[in-house]
């Protein structure tokens, strides 16, 4: 991976002529995303993200921390102990420049012998699962990282609305996917193209079933305005 998302964040943080990120998925056309969206303050965040940060407590793991906006809110506004991880070296470099105290380049699946009270995965946190077939592996890992009484706070969206209806009112979904929330993302930045990568969106019922299968309780905390939701998983 060329780490173009990370490069865009780092360019923004260091005033190195940042440009918009161009995104395209297997079911949607090209769209532009302004990098400053990843640098928003608590007051600029959607209600779902604000609610997750309000519910976070104890020792916290911020998975896929990006530019560190959620971590900074928890660290500076709530004075909580936050560990921030991302697989992007440039994202972590950005976090450190912004003042995130404990940020490191790491894959969630590689964490060993650590426990947390709250694990947050925001901005479609389940996206890192990639495909449905990886859900059990990720949920099992997340569960293993929780202290007794701990919680996992994550958000996602039911993207069924993005598919066309057939004559009977049903949805026309391509047959090459195991699940309609499995997308392939393409990203471009400053004329460079990233390697295509898998990204998962989970409807709430599917998340709930996967959670129960892995010995986790699943609660619907908040629903957003765009088919999105915040869920809490606990043992």
From TrEMBL:
Keywords from the named record: Methyltransferase, Transferase
Single GO BP term: methylation
Acetylation among keywords: no
InterPro entries documented for this protein: Methyltranfer_dom, SAM-dependent_MTases_sf
All residue ranges annotated as the Methyltransferase domain in the record: 58-188
Gene3D superfamilies: Vaccinia Virus protein VP39
Record keyword DNA repair present: no
CDD domains: AdoMet_MTases
One of the record's GO molecular function terms: polyprenyldihydroxybenzoate methyltransferase activity
Pfam family, one: Methyltransf_31
Protein's name according to its UniProt entry: Class I SAM-dependent methyltransferase
Species, as recorded: Flavobacterium cupreum
Top-level taxonomy: Bacteria, Pseudomonadati, Bacteroidota, Flavobacteriia, Flavobacteriales
């Amino acid at each position: 991976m060329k780490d173009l998302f990370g490069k865009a964040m780092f360019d923004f943080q260091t005033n190195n002529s940042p440009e918009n990120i161009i995104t395209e998925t297997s079911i949607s056309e090209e769209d532009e995303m302004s990098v400053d969206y990843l640098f928003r303050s608590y007051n600029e965040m959607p209600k779902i993200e604000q609610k997750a940060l309000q519910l976070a407590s104890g020792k916290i793991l911020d998975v896929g921390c990006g530019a560190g906006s959620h971590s900074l809110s928890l660290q500076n506004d709530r004075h909580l102990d936050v560990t921030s991880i991302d697989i992007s070296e440039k994202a972590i470099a950005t976090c450190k420049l912004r003042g995130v105290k404990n940020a490191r380049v790491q894959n969630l699946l590689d964490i060993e012998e650590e426990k947390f009270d709250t694990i947050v995965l925001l901005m479609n946190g389940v996206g890192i699962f990639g495909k449905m077939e990886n859900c059990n592996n990720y949920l099992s890992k997340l569960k293993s990282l929780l202290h007794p009484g701990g919680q996992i706070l994550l958000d996602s969206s039911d993207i069924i609305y993005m598919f066309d209806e057939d004559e009977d009112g049903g949805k026309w979904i391509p047959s090459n996917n195991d699940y309609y929330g499995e997308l392939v993302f393409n990203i471009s930045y400053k004329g460079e193209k990233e390697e295509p990568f898998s990204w998962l969106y989970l409807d709430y019922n599917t998340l709930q079933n996967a959670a129960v299968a892995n010995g986790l309780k699943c609660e619907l905390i908040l629903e957003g305005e765009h088919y999105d939701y915040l869920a809490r998983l606990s043992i």
